[in-house]
Amino acid sequence: MKEQFYEGIRNRLEGMKEAGTYKQYRYLESPMSARSQIKSKGDVLVLCSNNYLGLADKKELIQSGIEALEKYGAGGASVRFICGTYDIHQELEDKVAEFLGTEAALTYTSCWAANTAVIPALLQPGDTVLSDELNHASIVDGCRLIAKGVNKGIYRHSDMAHLEEKLQEAKDSPVKLVITDGVFSMEGDIAKLPEIVELVRKYDAILMLDDSHATGVIGKTGRGTEEYYNMIGSADIITSTFGKALGGAGGGFVAGKQEVIDLMVQVSRPHLFSNSLPPVLTAIAKTALEYLMSNPEIVQSLREKTNYFRKQLKDRGLNILEGDSAIIPIMIYDAPKAVSLANKLFEKGIYVTGFSFPVVPKDEARIRLQVSDALSYEDIDWASEVIQNLVD
Fold first, then answer.
1. Residue with more model confidence, 87 or 1
2. Is the pLDDT of residue 90 over 80?
3. Rg (CA), the chain
4. Which element (helix H / strand E) includes 327?
5. pLDDT of 19 above 80
6. Confidence class for position 359, pLDDT limits 50, 70, 90
7. Mean pLDDT within 150-173
8. Catalytic choice (185, 212, 268, 384)
9. Residue pLDDT, tens place only, 126-146
10. Cβ–Cβ under 8 Å, residues 341 and 355
11. How far is the first Cα of the chain from the last one, in angstroms, to the nearest whole number?
């Protein structure tokens, strides 16, 4: 029986290789930046990192991490409610709340942990949760963890008529929780927040917004989807990450009204049963957030480079998905071709990744480019030419 078990695993892996979905690591040997060193390859231009603001190798962030490591050590070896809470946790949480204009915030080791913490903690039997079909996997898993008796619904991607239909069906639920990504990570499009908010208010529902690919990226000063639409305060609950635009080191958070945060402290399982965010990561995140608040012009710089990159690709006839975020998907459709193109680009010195099912819908394989403010315009010109030559 045991040999059959392992034979089944080997067959599954072979199937992934044949389908072109088998993933292999490339090993970094330097800090993440516009150009990084990859083991056995050398210098490459990185176009697949979430390092949107180019802060991952910023000296101020590195120094704050060093100082925190010296002051606090590696960590408390504990969850928050026992002995794992540091003063710097409260400092960061206060800074997040100040940045987003919420009453309070709570940190987690990742936004994945935050999403899988918040959703089950909020909902009780009889309540309803409605999730966009292209929401991040952490939201999907958070919905899977809800209590028996909670109603679950999925609405078609950014389809407001379908969302309203689902809200009508749930009109008698005590709590109706609508969840959406702010920026959808594989599409690069932005949630229709004004229309969602209108429906949420019409049906007396609660809105939860995952802004992981929006925080630091969109909105005039990087305050995400709400600021992009000039609707600060319209979401009831915001989750996001420090592991992307805000330094890239790790950590996540939930922000909202004080009673929501208080409830998370009391009952959310990743908070109660998993170690607290290490002080070194907390310090890096705090410094990254402070840097962004002091230098909001980097958001405009990122926007200009993204627009320039999009124009370069479109002018060269490449099939890209429209959007206003720093994510630019180049549609290939065929999974093996997407993987092959990513490998060819890597050989030319451009680091990208091919995405296919189940990460994206079937027959919608793509190369996802992610723009960083660390890129130069010369980098963008060169990458656009190389990509065009290989796609052609």
1. 87
2. yes
3. 21
4. strand 327-333
5. no
6. confident
7. 97
8. 185
9. 999 999 999 999 999 999 999
10. no
11. 49
Please write the tens of the pLDDT for every residue from 244-275: 999 999 999 999 999 999 999 999 999 999 99
Both tokens of 197, joined, read 């908010």
pLDDT at position 51 is: 98
Phi, psi of 59 (to 5 degrees): -60, -40
| Cα separation, 230 vs 356, whole angstroms | 34
The answer to whether the beta carbons of residues 281 and 303 sit under 8 Å apart is no
- At 90, the amino acid letter reads Q
Mean pLDDT, to the nearest integer, of 31-44?
96
Answer whether 55's CB lies under 8 Å from 360's CB: no
* Alpha-carbon distances of 119 from 109, 113, 133, 344, rounded to whole Å: 16, 11, 16, 41
- The catalytic position among 244, 271, 286, 305 is 244
Q: In terms of residues, how long is the chain?
A: 392
Phi/psi of residue 75, nearest 5 degrees: 165, 175
Note if 314 is an active site residue.
no
Domains of the chain: 16-46+296-391 (3.90.1150.10), 59-294 (3.40.640.10)
Do 168 and 199 touch, CB atoms closer than 8 A?
Answer: no
pLDDT at 372 > cutoff 90: yes
- Which parts of 156-269 are beta strand (E)? 176-181, 206-210, 237-241, 252-256
Q: Position of tokens 């190369």? A: 367
Is the N-terminal amide bond of 361 cis, ω within 30° of 0? Answer: no
* Phi, then psi, of 98 in degrees rounded to 5: -65, -45
Max Cα separation, the chain?
61
Question: Is 213 a known active-site residue?
Answer: yes
Q: Decide: 142 and 116 in contact? Cβ < 8 Å.
A: yes
Residues 245 and 243: their CA atoms lie apart, in Å, by 7
Catalytic residue among 89, 166, 213, 286: 213
Active-site annotation holds for 157: no
